[in-house]
Amino acid sequence: MRILILAAICAALLTAAPALEIVRPVITDVEGGAPDPPGFDHIPGEILYFSCRVSGFTKTEDEKVHVAYSVQAFDPNGLPLDELYKNEVQVEAGPNDKDWMPKIATSVSIPPLAPSGEYKIVIKAEDMVAKTSAELTVPLRVRGRDVAPSDTLIVRDFHYYRGEDDTQPLTKAVYHAGDTIWARFDITGYKYGKPRNKSNVSYVTSVLTAEGKVLWTQPEPAVDESEGFYPKRFIPSSMSISLRANFKPGEYAIGLTVKDAVSGQVFEAKYPFTVE
């Protein structure tokens, strides 16, 4: 009797469907290119090409394969970068295709203002013949430009520069008559509207004396409107103004007024500079 039971168990094991598995994941920044090495830093705005294979699938009696799958990438906070990508493979794989495995391939777009951190690509597959499933999480690292979040509208990292293309801000905001003042800053803490993370932020700059008198105001506000599946985390902004050749030396400031049309928030601040 024991022999019969053992034989039955062995037969069941031999005929059991193999475990579905997602294997050979590849991430590359060049379509069809070599895999990026482990720990490779990707950058915001980059398009990545992802592929993998599915093993352990089952065929029908007439050699048909049917595998459905989905792919979605997430940022370090668990927010999806884009909508869920779904597709399926339905083919006939005969005896000569014994080493063949279904291929999953798609692209992943890193948002232009994506934060730094550990991202992940989550792949799910389902064998529609054997009714089995598998899941794999593939990590990837992004090196972005980080701006601290805020619950309310705010300007961060306001810096003065000597020239338009300078990468290092001035340690002291000192200019001379006839110079052009350059400044860059980030706006964050605004709210999003539905349905696709709509934002509408505007700002106006002014030149003020030390006493707060307005010498010049931007004629029309600069407006940034956007929407998309992935929320825009901050708005990189800039301004410039040329000082007249007879501009009087003294202490001044750039006044900045930012408005969020979605929430009605207003932020105002002054950023001093000197003219010698």
What do you see in this structure?
With 276 residues, the chain is mostly beta strands. It has 2 domains: 18-142, Immunoglobulin-like (Sandwich), CATH 2.60.40.3880; 154-275, Sandwich (Immunoglobulin-like). It is 5% helix and 49% strand. It has one helix spanning 2-15, and strands spanning 21-28, 41-42, 47-55, 64-74, 85-92, 103-109, 117-127, 132-142, 154-161, 174-175, 180-188, 199-209, 214-217, 222-226, 235-242, 250-260, 266-275. The strands form 4 sheets. Strands 10, 12, 13, 14, 16 and 17 form a 6-stranded mixed beta sheet that branches. A 5-stranded mixed beta sheet has the order 2-8-7-4-5, with no helix packed on it. The longest helix is centred in the N-terminal third of the chain and has 14 residues, at 2-15. The protein is elongated, with a radius of gyration of 29 Å. The chain starts with a helix and ends with a strand.
Report the principal-axis shape: elongated
Output mean pLDDT.
93
Distance between the termini: 104 Å
Strand content: over 45%
The beta-strand count equals: 17
- Based on the coordinates given, report the CATH architecture of the largest domain: Sandwich
Oligomer: single chain
What is the CATH C-level name of the largest domain?
A: Mainly Beta
Low-confidence stretches: 3-15
Q: Helix proportion of residues, in percent?
A: under 10%
Which series of helices and strands comes N to C?
Answer: HEEEEEEEEEEEEEEEEE
Mind sketching the topology for me?
Elements: H1 2-15, E1 21-28, E2 41-42, E3 47-55, E4 64-74, E5 85-92, E6 103-109, E7 117-127, E8 132-142, E9 154-161, E10 174-175, E11 180-188, E12 199-209, E13 214-217, E14 222-226, E15 235-242, E16 250-260, E17 266-275
Parallel strand pairs: 2-8, 10-17
Antiparallel strand pairs: 1-3, 3-6, 4-5, 4-7, 7-8, 9-11, 11-15, 12-13, 12-14, 12-16, 16-17
